[in-house]
Specification:
5-stranded parallel sheet; 4-stranded parallel sheet; binds phosphoric acid mono(formamide)ester; single chain; 9 strands; globular; about 300 residues
Length: about 300
């Protein structure tokens, strides 16, 4: 079994068997990162460019470490330290770096479609590390991997995604992935932060958190961005917190053996209380650990090394 594409742009078109392949492959890499020597020669000779036009802590470091643990050579591009500040375009930037003979590009960009654009003008394998409001596929894959490790399955679980549905690429990727894998998906947020096309998602939509959480197994809480309030999309942070913060009291609504998730970075006390974020049901740091294994799996499956074996 192989992935159909040599790029990972999103999960909307990714099949259940492809997602299963990535998650199963990640299981074997998860074992490697528990070893005393966390390094295998799998991607020796492969050069990966981490092209981050937007800030990132988890995704950037996780990819870099995944590449190093697979013995790939890595180059880290930071927009602020590059000639982009002198006006160089995305295409020229990538073409120039590609002239140094690279094989794969991990890209985060504020513009939706930037990873697709790179598939059209470069010869490298492209991995989307978050593009605009579109998708963040490796985040959703690591979220699904974390859920599957705890429950042994995704099918039939009730997963609630809470937050800024309109602007969240993490929510979009989670919706496509979880639906494909047979989970029951609900989204919840202020009506002003739901996109016009929300009905097309084919999930349950809530504007009241208590209703959304009632009978759920997993709550995945998204960061609310201050700039949304400045844009007038909700009246105040205090009101958002009153209506949408995942608190200890609200956890009583969930099924037994529930799970709390957050992709980070968190606004503690805004969308999630510290009490909940640091509770025994929270897998927030496990998500980060699992992210490395999932990204190792994605790099390996897209690299072409699997085909050589
Ligand atoms: N979850 C996530 O994408 O975090 P970073 O922005 O820190 O990469």
């Amino acid at each position: 079994m192989k992935l159909r594409s040599r790029h990972l742009l999103g999960l909307e078109e990714t099949t259940a068997s492809e997602i299963k392949l990535i998650l199963d492959t990640a299981e074997s890499f998860r074992e490697i990162i528990e070893r005393p020597i966390k390094k295998v020669p799998t991607l020796r000779g492969v050069t990966v460019l981490n092209l981050f036009y937007e800030p990132s802590t988890r995704t950037r470091i996780s990819f870099e470490l995944a590449e190093k643990r697979l013995s790939a050579d890595t180059i880290n591009f930071s927009r602020a330290l590059s000639s982009v500040t002198k006006g160089e375009s995305l295409k020229d930037t990538v073409k120039n770096i590609e002239a140094l003979k690279i094989n794969m590009i991990v890209v985060r960009h504020a513009s939706t479609g930037a990873p697709y654009f790179l598939t059209q003008c470069t010869g490298s394998n492209i991995i989307n590390a978050g593009d605009g409001r579109h998708e963040h596929p490796t985040q959703a894959l690591l979220d699904m991997f974390t859920i599957r490790r705890k429950y042994g399955r995704l099918e039939g679980l009730r997963v609630v995604l809470v937050g800024d549905v309109k602007h969240s690429r993490v929510i979009r990727s989670n919706i496509w992935g979880l639906k494909t894998m047979g989970a029951s998906v609900a989204i919840c947020g202020p009506s002003t932060l739901l996109p016009y096309e929300v009905e097309e998602f084919g999930v349950d939509v809530y504007t009241h958190l208590d209703e959304a959480m009632d009978g759920a197994d997993v709550v995945n809480v998204m960061r609310i961005q201050l700039e949304r309030q400045q844009a007038g999309l909700f009246p105040s942070m205090r009101e958002y917190t009153r209506l949408f913060c995942v608190t200890k009291e609200r956890l009583k609504l969930l099924n037994k053996n529930y799970t709390i998730m957050h992709p980070g970075p968190m606004n503690r006390g805004v969308e999630i209380t510290s009490e909940v974020a640091d509770s025994s049901s929270s897998v927030i740091l496990e998500q980060v650990t699992n992210g490395q294994a999932v990204r190792m799996a994605v790099l390996y499956l897209l690299s072409g090394k699997q085909r050589e074996e």
